[in-house]
Specification:
Radius of gyration: 24 Å
Helix content: 25-40%
Shape: elongated
Number of strands: 8
Strand content: 15-25%
Strand order of the largest sheet: 7-6-5-8
Low-confidence stretches: none
Order of helices and strands: EEHEHEHHEHEHEHE
Distance between the termini: 43 Å
């Protein structure tokens, strides 16, 4: 049982828990991944390793691996990679760059498409008022760049064809 907000919780329905216990196959600690029969557990950081240890995982079973996407981000921060990204978009070293993560309110059904486009229009018109900056739009993979192209042209912003983690190292403002 686990206590959460002064309530006792069972990981499994009582009959399954009793049967697994009787058969000797119940996990020692069902609340923590890796606290049972796993030979090792990969975690992203020492902080996460500490939380797992506190949750019952033996420290010898924990391997800190880092996060693969952070490796890609680190590579994108090199001077060479930043210079290449700027060249790709025709942005000089002196130019200020805003990267805008475009909300996908229509794509996720949070707004009707009509309301979504009104929001996008407001966002891009606001960004267009900022003089002397380059604006790169980072679209969610679920978004169709063609749907945004006319807005990008109207407000003189660029739809980025690179992942956001490649854009972050060159931006002065991320919104």
């Amino acid at each position: 049982a686990h206590t959460y907000r002064q309530k006792k919780l069972l990981m499994y329905p009582g009959n399954e828990l009793l049967a697994a216990s009787f058969l000797g196959i119940a996990p020692k600690n069902p609340w923590t991944i890796g606290a049972n029969g796993a030979g090792c557990t990969a975690v992203e950081s020492e902080d996460q390793a500490q939380r797992y240890t506190e949750g019952g995982v033996e420290r010898e079973k924990i391997v800190v691996t880092g996060k693969a996407s952070m490796d890609a981000f680190y590579q994108a921060t090199t001077d060479e990679a930043c210079a290449e990204t700027r060249r790709h978009f025709g942005i000089s070293e002196e130019e200020t760059v805003i990267v805008c993560a475009v909300p996908q309110l229509g794509e996720h059904g949070q707004l009707s498409w009509e309301e979504h486009w009104k929001e996008i229009e407001f966002l891009l018109s606001s960004l267009a008022e900022i003089r002397g900056v380059r604006v790169l739009l980072s679209l969610h993979p679920k978004s169709d760049p063609q749907q945004y192209q006319s807005y990008a042209e109207r407000y003189k912003v660029t739809i980025a064809d690179k992942r956001y983690y490649e854009l972050l190292p060159i931006c002065d403002l991320y919104t």
